[in-house]
Amino acid sequence: MLADPLRAGHDLDRMSARGIFVLGAALAASCLRAVPPAEAAESVAATNATPAATPASAQAQTAPGPSKPVGVYVIPVREEIDEPVFFVIRRGLKEATDHGIKNVVFDMKTPGGSLATTLEILDAINHFDGKTYTYVDTEAMSAGAFIAAMTDEIWFAPRAVIGASAPVMSTGGDIDATMKQKIVSYLRAKMRAITEGKGAYRGEVIEAMIDSNYELKIGDVVLKPKGELLSLTNTEAAREFGDPPQPLLSAGTADSVDALLARKFGEGNFRVTHLEVTWSERLAQYLTNFSPLLLGHGLLALFIEFKTPGFGFFGISGIVLLALVFFGSWVAGLAGHEPALFFALGLLLLVLEIFFFPGAVLPATLGLVMIFGSLVWTLSDLWPGQPVEFSTDVFLGPIGDVMLGILIAIVGAFLLARVLPGR
Is the peptide bond before 244 cis (omega within 30 degrees of 0)? Predict the structure, then answer.
């Protein structure tokens, strides 16, 4: 005997709601656990290295080791400086802040890269409330020298070099003379600002790396005449001038990052967390660029799921697309797992209102506010432990992306309304 068609449809509706409810709850539970994926390639290891280190100045003397190992994050700055490198630096600095770690080392081996990305990296380092170190492993050229200049101390590997930071086209060609003059003037002022209080000569040295027309002269010694760019080896960077003597740029020479840390904190008195740039950072580069499209199609897929009986392809697709938005944001260092948790809770409140407590109003209103707020949150560059600045610089872009995503979902829902069954 066949069941009543109206009751069967109602049962299918309840099945759809139950499916979304269960998946939402699973998402919330996974967010509460907040276990980073294996792809993040983060490894924590107690370091007891004992390589030899060459002293370079009085500033680089060994500090007595504390009884409790000092936490240190080591972040690679390798190959060309681009968005994936920026993502892992920003994420590493925020994770260090979350975990109360006050020491970050940039393990650098780079020929340079994008100036725009470098300026974003400098801003991220400026937000970090702790000590930063650069370890120049082989080379820190061009944009790499700018990042090194921003850190508190610059250490060198034997035979490492730093410098030659004049701006050029992305193709390697020369910039128009007038435009180059403007960029050089800006960069010189920027470097003077970020190097204040970081050594007697650092600002002048970096300026000489940027501007070929700048003469670097200390006392009667001309270190760089006009007409060329300055580059320094590790021994040249450690050369001392003035009274009392101070090194030109280097805080010391060490055979490895471990040797540097042993000099700073004592043998075995530090614990290192290594971050690496993996495929996930490369993927996040595209996910963040297309987040409005992913968001819009994810919301549209959930709308279609609500409008059709049962639970299946569209519900799963919507959750996957939205999960990619949150995953890309986390890998890019914009936000942690909390926005995904708020989104899941907001979705659960919305489901409760629609299917279990229709007309209650409050659960749906609160759910929509949490969903919208979580989406803006996950796309905003907020720093842990720092007050939220409600400014257009912080929220205008994320709100625009969320509104664009919602607009895509609304237009898609309007176009599909005629062919979707009523609920």
Answer: yes
